[in-house]
Write a structure and sequence with these properties.
Blueprint: E1 3-8, E2 12-19, E3 24-25, E4 30-33, H1 40-51, E5 59-64, E6 68-69, E7 72-73, H2 88-96, E8 100-104, H3 105-116, E9 125-131, E10 135-141, E11 144-146, E12 155-156, E13 159-160, H4 161-165, H5 167-172, H6 177-195, E14 199-203, H7 210-213, E15 223-225, H8 232-245
This protein binds beta-D-glucopyranose (BGC).
InterPro entries: ATPase_NBD, ROK
Family: Belongs to the ROK (NagC/XylR) family.
Protein name: Polyphosphate glucokinase
């Protein structure tokens, strides 16, 4: 009953078999660079290359950096536009010869954090936000995922929030931590005004450096860094793949 989790990110496609009870990887993960351009055919091959490193798995959960409804990818903000309306779950499943569940990358990372990491044992409305190439969001009410929320595309200062406050924007504009934290604070204040979550879990690669920017952010809502870091997407994808077999919504 082994389950493989695979995370399609802006720079790498990473995967490993997952212990979905303990919330950990069963072996070291394997990574290949995300193909450029990141079109459907190339990414399906990259995923197959990762999966080929592992034998003996029964099902696969795969994250995608966009909206995914019933296995079909509906948006493609930071990947090749060939993903718009692609039957992703079917394509991966045909290539890998196993049942495949595809879900949004932030939803997967959030599911893992709420089940095993920074949101463990927290009830009520919890929001995970990932700051990376884009801004991903995942919303949970009493441990049940409300999928595909896309709060990274709220408008901030007249622009798409992720164009102003993602980690990519910080790097591209060579912003100081102070300047970037100011934008993140504006963004978080906007989100808390709209939703009043009980907790923000801040993920994405930059959450490793939370000591550099958390002290600069002043908001009402408690805020914690993600704890599973690079493996959250892989773990959450595997959990979702197992739950899909019972037809239940992602619940943690
Ligand atoms: C996408 C989201 C995704 C986020 C992080 C955004 O641009 O629209 O679906 O979760 O980036 O990858």
């Amino acid at each position: 009953m082994a389950t493989l989790g695979i995370d399609i990110g802006g720079s790498g496609v990473k995967g490993a078999p997952v212990d979905t009870i303990g919330g950990d990887l069963l072996t070291e993960r394997f990574r290949v660079p995300t193909p450029q351009p990141s079109d459907v055919t190339s990414v399906v091959e990259a995923v197959a290359e990762v999966a080929a490193q592992f034998d003996d798995f029964d099902r696969v959960g795969i994250t995608f950096p966009g909206v995914v409804v019933d296995g079909v990818t509906r948006t493609a903000a930071n990947v090749d536009k060939s993903w718009l309306d692609a039957p992703a779950a079917e394509l991966f499943s045909q290539r890998l010869g196993k049942p495949v569940t595809v879900l949004n990358d932030a939803d997967a990372a959030g599911a893992a954090e709420v089940a095993f990491g920074a949101g463990h044992d927290q009830r009520g409305l919890i929001m995970m936000l990932t700051f990376g190439t884009g801004i991903g969001s995942a919303l949970f009410l009493d441990g049940v995922l409300i999928p595909n929320t896309e709060f990274g595309h709220l408008e901030l200062d007249g622009k798409d929030a992720e164009a102003r406050a993602s980690d990519r924007a910080r790097e591209a504009e060579d912003m100081s931590w102070e300047k970037w934290a100011g934008r993140v604070e504006d963004y978080l204040k906007h989100v808390e005004m709209l939703l009043s979550p009980r907790l923000f879990i801040i993920g994405g690669g930059v959450s490793k450096k939370s000591d550099k920017f958390f002290p600069l952010i002043d908001i009402r809502t408690p805020m914690v860094p993600a704890t599973l870091l690079n493996n959250a997407g892989i773990i959450g994808a595997a959990v979702a793949a197992e739950q899909a077999e019972t037809g239940s919504p992602v619940q943690v």
